[in-house]
Amino acid sequence: MPFDTEEDGMSRRSFLRTSTVLSAGVAAVAAGLAPLRKLGEFTSVDQFLQKYYKELTPQEMKTVLERIETEVQRQYGVRPHVRDYKPMNGVEYVYALNLTRCVGCRKCVHACVAENNQSRNPEIQYIRVLKMPNDGTFDMDKGDHNYAPKSVPEPGFFFMPVQCHQCKNPPCVKVCPVKATWQEPDGITVIDYNWCIGCRYCEAACPYFARRFNFASPSIPSEQLNTNMSYLGNRPRYKGVVEKCHFCIQRSRVGRYPACVEVCPTGSRKFGNILDPKSEVSYILKNKRVLVLKAELGTLPRFFYYFDI
Amino acid sequence: MAKGWQDGVRNRPLYWPRDYLMNGDPKARNVLALLTALFLALAVGFALVPAQPGAPVRVPIVPRSALAIAPMTVRISAAQLVKSGGDVSGLDCYACHHKESPPEIKSDAAHRIVLPREHTDLILGMRNCAECHPPSDPVKLDYDDSGNVIVPKAHKGLVSMAHGRNFRNENCYNCHDRDQLDQLHTPDGEKLKFEQATLLCASCHGPTYRDWLAGAHGRTAGYWDRSAGPIDRQECASCHDPHAPAFTGLIPMPGPHLLHPLPKGQPAPSKPDDHAL
Hints:
The structure holds two protein chains of two kinds.
Chain A (H helix, E strand, L loop, with lengths): L11 H22 L2 H4 L5 H4 L9 H19 L4 E3 L9 E6 L8 H9 L12 E6 L23 E6 L8 H5 L5 E3 L5 E3 L9 H5 L6 E2 L14 E3 L11 E2 L5 H4 L6 H5 L5 E5 L6 H8 L1 E3 L11 E5 L2
Chain B lengths: L4 E2 L2 E2 L7 H6 L2 H23 L29 H6 L22 E2 L5 E2 L69 E2 L5 E2 L4 H6 L3 H9 L5 E3 L8 E3 L2 H4 L38
């Protein structure tokens, strides 16, 4: 048997065959993994090994914030100020929106995009303004968000902006398999963008259509980047994570009004501390006719709609 | 006889990949060879074309100037907004200028008001009649048969009365003093100065004034936390023209489009269930 000499070891022919197949296999695996080389530009080892937000010590958080600042600077050419704003004691945020006054001009939508560094393409917006027929129901399915008349308001319709309701009983937090989203003591439901795995369960669980998913890497023109950033808020998101309204955490937690409140030309949007009896939201909840969207779901939103009359 | 062979027949199982390549099913062998060639070609391709980050997409986006007020620097930046040529239709002079220390109004040789350069595109409402009609030179009013004031043609577009349309309407004198137009008075006779115009509004619009005092009516900016900073409130006349207080319509900003820009001529999706994000 000249061609089978296994007992003596390996023949020249079988060695060549085996080594060819092996090297081809190695090359094939390398080819398959080649796209991962791109990952190095977006994911550093530190970022990959970063701990859960709640487990970070202050010193570690400082390192993380500096790393994020460097990442943003590398990507956008602007060095931002990324801070980790903590909730204040004795503060619970509540939002009130006057449906009698809202005219549906969508200024809040675009102010929010500018303030919170949402992706411009593909477009991500936290606020969705619905044009609702004046038929006495609050059925969101009847709303149209693509309205484009020459002038608003339109007779026969009212306008209802919908954004994250910062529920006291949030379904989105319940379904998160990795606890990447949770409710803070001041009532804001936040997301750790470095911990989110992008399963989108929360997006499906939200009855208010408030969560958005980054299908692609966000694109923001550098000159429009808002450099006042917070870790849980408006720092640039990654591809494959979920984001949503956070009451402009980088503004509200230093005592300022969210961008949508300040930009509203009709003064329909009101924001404040519900634990302060002198705040405007306390006054509204005490004195106005107040509506909660989809109250039957038991989500207990901190976002109220009210009427003047 | 070699180990594993008996009368030319295998007596041990095939193991991958050597035996498959040498003795296995020729179909499987061909498939394996094809796949190997494919991945080799891919490897060569990846090696030759180094990975490069895609160029950032420049998208025509809603310009910041389209917002009446930039969200980061609300109200403070109103002057910058005027300078940058933004939409100033919603602005009031007192957003920048303090009522206590009004800007000095300069006049040219023909006694016309000289506008600063950054105000050239600002349409100055004739809120203060005394700018043209000083108290030393009072205006003589003409009335039509039913006792309404005849507004001179030169004032067309400056003063349009759409306020106080009820049976007790006395036109200008609902609010202005009969003898001195720059003095105000409430319906029950209380005299007020121009700076107290909000109280004048309150004399008829009590519930709205109550809401405004509590912060529930009108624009707010600045700080919700009064210990952290001031709240920026607007008075009635900052937003409402006292002569025509109802708001006119606003042009809505663009609606949601998942991707920018839409191809030319393609209308926006109109169904609300288009599953756009």
